[in-house]
Protein 1
Amino acid sequence: MRATYRAGFACFVGRPNAGKSTLTNAIIGQKIAITSNKPQTTRHVIRGVLHRPDGQIVLVDTPGLHRPRTLLGERLNDLVRTTWSEVDVIGLCIPANEPVGRGDKFISGELSELKATVLAVVTKTDLVPDKKKLAEQLLAVSQLADFAEIVPVSAVSGSQVGMLTDVMAKYMPESPQLYPDDILTDEPERVLIGELIRESALEGVRDELPHSLAVLVEEMVEEESVLRVYADVYVERSSQKAIMIGHKGSRLKEVGTRARAEIEKLLGRRIYLDLHIRVAKEWQRDPKQLRRLGF
Ligand SMILES: Nc1nc2c(ncn2[C@@H]2O[C@H](COP(=O)(O)OP(=O)(O)OP(=O)(O)O)[C@@H](O)[C@H]2O)c(=O)[nH]1
């Protein structure tokens, strides 16, 4: 007898830096979501589709839920809640190497109201020194809420990632295939390119900058051997613009070179990248600007 085909939507939630984006990438096997060691940099809902013989898992990447201080913060929280109500499986990510805290308790409380199956995913297991420490963490996590299952993983070493997807697939509803076989992501290329530029621009900047950064891909021009990409990186203040550009443009050049390499990897073709830094004052508070930037 053929196994039942199951397909549905899943997302990872958890406090900032819990490892959600890295795990999404490890599962889909391609760099589609932005990762960074700065909290709250995942802005767009990015889907990747995992194809299995017995089903499909459509992964939706959400930004972290946080205390809203600006209009952008509120929009992000709305986006998170909408996503949560639309998925079949939610993986609450809790790092193996950090104590279970109030943030985790708050999120698991919010999740208990939903119809989705909630799994606890104990991430970054490569960072705990021994099995005893891991066992203690699994116990602490089990006391947080009534999870359907608890799965420890390391997205970096790859340990247990396959096991996690088996568990996620098991809790998907019976359903026909949701996406054709060759679809890895349904996010428009433009958004993915914008994310890669944003990721590159965030590398090595000071803490206050990430919240003030947005990327808009203005134009993509097809030429015979190269795709020309024109993009604007928005910051809030001219002092930030100076940081982004660096001494004699050195930093901007670095950002561009790194982003171009990543975009070329993503699209498998030669890219010409033209980056401009622009100041959009207080863009996080301005609904018109937010809409323009896709929020
Ligand atoms: N050692 C180790 N580091 C990891 C692992 N997963 C993620 N990290 C690191 O933890 C940091 C945060 O990972 P992200 O995947 O960006 O976390 P996130 O939960 O998506 O973060 P936000 O976008 O801020 O919500 C990055 O520096 C990752 O490289 C893992 O399995 N092992």
Protein 2
Amino acid sequence: MAVAIQRIVIGLVRNSQDQYLISLRRGEQHLAGKWEFPGGKAEAGEDELSALARELEEEVGLELTGAELMERKVFEFDDRTLALHFYRVTGYRGQPRAREGQPLKWASVEELRALPFPKANDSVIAAL
Ligand SMILES: Nc1nc2c([nH]c(=O)n2[C@H]2C[C@H](O)[C@@H](COP(=O)(O)OP(=O)(O)OP(=O)(O)O)O2)c(=O)[nH]1
Ligand SMILES: [Mg+2]
């Protein structure tokens, strides 16, 4: 039987200084030690924009008001295959806060290029 590939939604949130919101994956998480843009797994039957809005609220306390799809890719990690949906967040309300206790910061494109991110992020970061 075919197994559905896990859908992941990811938000690139940019501030007025052209910095992007990132957090550190930790502990037992897949890809611990890598930085990431906020996001996570879409639930069964949940559309991707709803999932993105939910993840941004849960992880960083932002209310999503607009987003555009940047890139969609299926990526095979050593141990799993994910369908990643990268969105450029075009509107949001609120100030970001680390609602899950994760290290959270704003980083310039130059800093993003120097920090460790999952391999799946390479093309999106290159496009910024
Ligand atoms: N959030 C996020 N995940 C990424 C990025 N790049 C990348 O390969 N991933 C991978 C890591 C994870 O395997 C998956 C995201 O799932 P997640 O672990 O954040 O899931 P979740 O927020 O729903 O958390 P959980 O409830 O399962 O703990 O996508 C990225 O930039 N941001
Ligand atoms: Mg997550």
